[in-house]
Amino acid sequence: MKQLESTGLQSHNSFSVTASCRRLFALEHTHDLAELKKLQLQTPLMLGAGSNILFTTDYPGDIILNRLRGRQIIDATDKHAYVRVQAGSDWHKTVLWSLKQGLSGLENLALIPGTAGAAPIQNIGAYGVEISDTLELVEVWDNKNNSARMMKAQDCQLGYRDSLFRRQPDRYWILNITLKLSRVPRLRLGYKGLKQKLDSMGVEQPQAIDVANAVCSLRNEKLPNPAQLANAGSFFKNPIIDNQLLQLLLQDHPQLPHWPQENSKSKISAAWLIEASGWKGHRTGDAGVSPDHALILINYGKASGAEVWQLAENIRSAVKNKFNLLLKAEPRIIQAN
Ligand code: FAD
Ligand code: EPU
Question: Which residue has the CA at smallest separation from atom 25 of ligand 2?
Fold first, then answer.
């Protein structure tokens, strides 16, 4: 495994906060896993592109950047193709590659930053689709018994921004994922604004690539590009609450956006709760809330991870005081013990 000279993490997290770790490695070949024991790693953490993590402090242990790259079709039928993607491959490039192969299933997930290996960690989702819709297999390195094994997607406890991997952080390192993609497109255009965007683009009979283009366009309108304004996408998950509680909230706040879920529950908009609590566009020093989207926290320059986290805590308290709801952070938060 390649050990990097610098242990600085600023260029390895999309919040662009300064932090360091004990040692920093890059995993480029799976055969490097055979020498793991020799390295005597301390509380190792695997990182992809760092677009869903906040370092509020230095990381006391070793960090391994997943740089396993490559993707190929490993099997195909008349209707489907099975695609294996190495964990360190760029996610958006994987989406574009799949479309070039004439395969559909990933188009609604275009332009999500990060690596393919991180995609199952929080079951990435956007525009009405989650990776659980196409995920078949995940090959992991199990740190408990130092061996690789294949897991079926249905054993990964994938839910809304949730998985077995999030519940047991650092036990499994994802080495590659296998996706079942379709040769016969079944486009999903139900998400608010997607069909209208295609109409505005003059697309009458959309193909999968048109959907990807429309999704990219919508995302570029709403979400700041981390290369220009450092952020980690949505900072909080949308709360999922009982329908009874939703009815109570709607009595006082009829405009609260909500979407039905299974088991008499509904998802409600965290962005709306934050905006209604008065935090949209707020800024303390270099840590702020996007004026364009209340769910995006931004490091405008030199904010520390601790300052971004303090802002998040203040927002959480405000939403708790106003609505009696506790928002949960979406990114992984690295804090001092
Ligand atoms: P990292 O930030 O590197 O890691 C995230 C977590 O996964 C960490 O806990 C890390 O330890 C773990 N991890 C990473 N790789 C591995 C691996 N190979 N094995 C084991 N553990 C691993 N997410 C969505 O779901 N939908 C969106 O629409 C969306 N939009 C975004 C928009 C912007 C502008 C940004 C910055 C982020 C957005 N995100 C979105 C969040 C982010 O893109 C995803 O969570 C993505 O999957 C993170 O990939 P990464 O490689 O950067 O993960
Ligand atoms: N809204 C506000 N104020 C705002 C922004 C939005 O009130 O400042 C309301 C609007 O009414 C809007 C609703 O919130 O209709 C939902 O907004 P949006 O469509 O932007 O979706 P979101 O719930 O904010 C979720 C995901 C995104 C994903 C989009 C598109 C979560 C936590 N976030 O955002 O994922 O890209 O839907 O599907 O589920 C991420 O996880 O990092 C992420 C960006």
Answer: 126
